[in-house]
Amino acid sequence: MKKTFFSLLVFLFAIISSNTVKANCISILKDTLTEEQKDSIHEAALQATMSYPYIKSSKESGVLPVPDIDEKQDPNMQYKLLFFISGVDKTKMKKLNDGLSEIARSVNLHAAAGIPTANIHVVVIVFRQGLNVLLKDEKYMEKYKSSNPNIALIEELQKAGVKFISCGQSMQRVGVKKEDMVPNVKVSLSARTAMSYYETLGYMYQ
Predict the structure, then answer these.
(1) Confidence (pTM)
(2) pLDDT digits (tens, 9 = 90+) for 30-54
(3) Across the chain, what does the average pLDDT equal?
(4) DSSP element (H, E) containing 154
(5) Number of domain units in the chain
(6) Domain around 15
(7) Is residue 72, in this structure, part of any structural domain at all?
């Protein structure tokens, strides 16, 4: 009962738009809540202020508003971003992959900084056990007894121009075939050669 009440409290706090009301809530509750509960309320308040300027499938990929920004990036430059996904947390396979959420967050941060989406170029190289993130639903279900929670975000990233490349060496070792993965994933001989190629093109590891 207490857990349900607290969950409702966090939800109501998250949707309160008045900063004054939020401040009063904190003042009233600060002596009765645990530190963990205070952290949860603080996080809910932050979540309520986040924006999602480009990628929207992950709630962990929002951008917090920042006042008085005086260090700005050139929106006319080409931003080449290189990411790796090499592992998975087997205790979290029913949840969105943290690495994918961070990729989406980086794209959103660049968009929020005023960089046109046409100038944001992203390549994601996936190898080792990270290949499981790319599995189609039926293959994911066979391994983890769950539909793949990452597919919607992967598809949204792909529509935004993000390129996913799988490591052919890892595919042989892990036992993943191209047809096992979501559509439009490119296969490279190896992650290592793909990395050196894109680094030569000026992509920066994030």
Answers:
(1) 0.80
(2) 667 676 666 666 666 676 788 899 9
(3) 88
(4) helix 151-159
(5) 2
(6) 2-49
(7) no
Distance CA 80, CA 43 (A): 31
Structure tokens at 120: 């944001």
Tokens encoding 22: 């939020």
Please, what's the largest Cα pairwise distance for the chain? 60
Residues in the chain: 206
Could you tell me the CATH number of the domain that includes residue 112?
A: 3.40.1260.10
Contact 59, 28 (CB under 8 A): no
Structure tokens at 177: 């075939």
Q: Is residue 176 part of a domain?
A: yes
- Of 17-26, 84-93, 155-164, highest mean pLDDT: 155-164
Residue 8 belongs to some domain of the structure = yes
Please check whether residues 41 and 114 belong to one and the same domain. no
| Whether residues 92 and 134 fall in one domain | yes
Say yes or no: 38 and 99 in one domain. Answer: no
Candidates 203, 191, 196; CA nearest to 131 is 191
61 close to 162: Cβ distance less than 8 angstroms: no
The dihedral of CA 20, 25, 28, 34: what is its sign?
Answer: negative
